[in-house]
Design brief:
This protein is an alpha/beta fold and about 140 residues long. It has helices spanning about 15-25, 35-45, 65-70, 90-95, 110-125; strands at about 5-10, 30-35, 50-55, 80-85, 100-105. The longest helix has 17 residues, at about 110-125.
Length: about 140
Amino acid sequence: MIRIIRILVVEDEPEIAFGIENDLLSDEYDLSVAREGNEAVRRARTETFDLILLDVMLPHMDGVEVCRELRKGGIATPIVMLTTKTGEVDKVMGLDLGANDYVTKPFSARELRARIRAALRHQRSEPKPLWRVASPAQHLTL
């Protein structure tokens, strides 16, 4: 049985969203599209996604703020930011806010697929935190 990968594509430009959907359509990806940052935050909080492709330039709430809100809310879903902003400051800020990767437009479908696979692989390989309950006389190990 093949596991379907659920991806939330957050892109306000219909042509770009359609192009991403077209490029990623396959048996392993189930794509949903959100057109605004507020919608992306709401859906990421109420639905389960394996990955979020997040445009930076969005109406009402930009992708940087979406990333910040999701991470602040404890959502650990991998985020790959998609943007025309190529400056080092923009890339560093996106990554520091919790994005797993930062892809500049234009990009090829092949590159995007590789970055999606890498983000998903990294998430699966991250060790789960170890919690131990200690008596008052012991130290807590995280």
